[in-house]
Hints:
Layout: E1 40-43, H1 69-81, E2 89-93, H2 103-113, H3 119-122, E3 123-129, H4 136-144, E4 148-152, H5 157-163, H6 173-185, E5 190-196, H7 204-213, E6 218-223, H8 240-257, E7 263-264, H9 265-275, E8 297-300, E9 305-308, E10 327-328, H10 341-360, H11 364-367, H12 372-379, H13 388-409
Parallel strand pairs: 1-2, 1-8, 2-3, 3-4, 4-5, 5-6, 6-7
Antiparallel strand pairs: 8-9, 9-10
The structure holds iron/sulfur cluster.
Iron/sulfur cluster binds next to helix 11 and helix 13.
Amino acid sequence: MTTTLEAPTxxxxxxxxxxxxxxxxxxxxxxxxxRLAMGLLVIQPSPFCNxxxxxxxxPNRTDTRRMDHAxxxxxxxxxxxxxxxxxxxxxxxxxxxxxxxxxxxxxKAFEIINRYxxxxxxxxxxxxxxxTLINDKWCEFLNKHEVEVGLSVDGPRxxxxxxxxxxxGEGTFDKTMxxxxxxxxxxxxxxxxxxxxxxxxxxxxxxxxxxxxHGITGIGFNIEEVEGANETSSLGKDGGLDRIxxxxxxxxxxxxxxxxxxxxxxxxxxxxxxxxxxxxxRPDGGYYNQEADPFGMVNVDCFGNFSSFSPELLGQSTEKYxxxxxxxxxxxxxxxxxxxxxxxxxxxxxxxxNQKCSETCQFYKYCGGASPSNKYYENxxxxxxxxxxxxxxxxxxxEIILEDLENDLGITETVSPLIEMPKPPGV
Length: 427
Ligand code: SF4
């Protein structure tokens, strides 16, 4: 999952003792019953999106139905009663365009959420938005509630408009940039998430210059993934990984040459993994991967249906696992999922895949098995290891930084100057 700008929530050994209530947590399996805590709650206020990007993984993005506030209240009841709320966690409004739902809906929703004990301290609100609907009123709301904003921008106009279009097929660059300028004018902090596809991967310099010209300092790269309704990736062909590596390396070196003015999520995580071992450890010493922990992420659609593990699984169909919907919070609790056959099957396969990762991959202690949804969509099963996604978001950034450190320290003979970009296929 690289949907948002977020780095994994850091947890400490003491976090597990800070529950909001003393609800007894049912056992899942001997392997995981001691580590349950929620790091991210994704709530889909509506599946609807006002634009129509051609790489989008969401299947129902023309559906305009909206979560009823009574449903939200039930969801919050179940989450708060679960005993999973152990420390501050992110509540991400996502899985559709969240700002297509009116501000008045959110005013009521935030009022409901803030009724829960400690909610003001524990809930860190964030939105992932395409930016096209941002105006002064939205900025006022976002500032008032200190909502963290992730803006989806793919780069300069010709790159952004290639995939990010309206339903009429028009580019959305102007509207998105207007939204970005509105955020800046109103002093709303934001970060940018850019999908790197075949139209941008060979242009790291143009991408770097774009961020610098527009004063963008926080960036996350989502390398185009095979996921959900997006059944192929433009970078899945031969040579795709070489092009991604060349992109990342050139971008890193440009940033380095300027004194690292840009904070790139993938490189920041990699640097922390190298320089601060244990920064993302669970109490048992393993790497905290909230996508692989049952209920580390809880993902709820606008009808109260929920899944866990990678948010991209919410609402997706699957034959192999029967369903990625593990229950409905209107009629049951989160822990009802633990007796659900589909949940048990998914969990068993995720753990089996992670076991293989731990036995075969030197990066396991820096990723905890990475994204289950990418394993499923790329390899056909959670019980698997390497994916394009983990190559490009875990391995490559660490390799690039390590190589650079070794060069700086003079402990390698391979001096790596600014590299030559490989030619795009067919050139
Ligand atoms: S980098 Fe990929 S193959 Fe290696 S441990 Fe992580 S998920 Fe598994």
